[in-house]
Amino acid sequence: MLRPLCPADAPALIEFFASHTPETVHDRYGYSISDMSPERAGALVGVNQAWDLALGIFGAGRSGERLAAVGRFCRDPDGSGAEFALVVRENRRHLGMGSLLLKKLIEVAAGRGLDRLWAQISADNPAMLDLARSLGFVLSQDEDRCMRAVRPLRPAAKPKRRR
Ligand SMILES: CC(C)(COP(=O)(O)OP(=O)(O)OC[C@H]1O[C@@H](n2cnc3c(N)ncnc32)[C@H](O)[C@@H]1OP(=O)(O)O)[C@@H](O)C(=O)NCCC(=O)NCCS
Fold first, then answer.
1. Ligand 1 pocket, 89 CB below 6 A?
2. Which string of b and e fits 122-159 if b means at least 16 CB within 10 Å?
3. Where do the domains of the chain lie, and which CATH numbers do they carry?
4. 14-23, 37-46, 56-65: the lowest-pLDDT one
5. Position with higher pLDDT, 133 vs 161
6. How large is the average pLDDT for residues 88-95?
7. Is the pLDDT reported for residue 82 higher than 80?
8. pLDDT at 64
9. What are phi and psi of 113, to 5 degrees?
């Protein structure tokens, strides 16, 4: 089930983070973090969903719902564009969840009138580079060993006025 994250999902996010290998943490965050504190988890699941967006795909686990994937965007300071990030549980990859989440982020961002989505992606992350390219992101060299992926968004068409 795909749905917005909410404050009650903090324990699920902590469990999800604990399942990541160091490589996944590095690919997702761009640096090493060893643990997810309750405060940080609370901030990540408690975003203002009308401004930013944090989505989770949940599956059934032994003790209830378990996160299989998370996708989010966070508005730039001027609000016109947003940086996105994705992470899929290692044993649930290649099932289309990454592309499902990124398509949803694009759809919502365009619907809210944002002019672009972007991310910095390690040059050593072919999975994310291929996924971004396949969904219309333009890749360019950014910092050392890092690519910048940018997708211009066309705002959703306004409904026609009835005569
Ligand atoms: C990148 C990531 C989100 C992809 O998630 P996923 O659910 O496996 O992706 P999908 O199943 O939707 O695959 C979509 C496309 O991505 C590309 N892709 C996915 N995994 C790939 C891999 N290992 N190598 C090359 N391309 C890959 C392919 O183009 C694929 O399309 P295909 O299945 O038709 O070949 C996942 O590997 C991940 O969580 N990586 C660690 C965190 C990360 O890198 N986040 C990015 C930070 S912006």
1. no
2. eeebeebbebbeebebeeeeeeeeebebebebeeeeee
3. 2-152 (3.40.630.30)
4. 56-65
5. 133
6. 97
7. yes
8. 79
9. 85, 15
CA separation, residue 132 to residues 14, 68, 113, 114, 139 (Å): 26, 20, 20, 18, 8
| Tokens read off for 24 | 């996944």
Distance in Å, CA 63 to ligand 1 centroid: 27
AA letter at 103: K
The structure's pTM equals 0.92
Residue with CA at minimum distance from ligand 1 atom 27: 127
Non-local CB neighbours of 85 within 8 Å, separated by 6+ positions: 28, 71, 72, 73, 74, 119
DSSP E strands in 6-108: the ranges are 53-61, 64-75, 81-88
pLDDT at 161 over 80: no
For residue 97, give both structure tokens.
């969840």
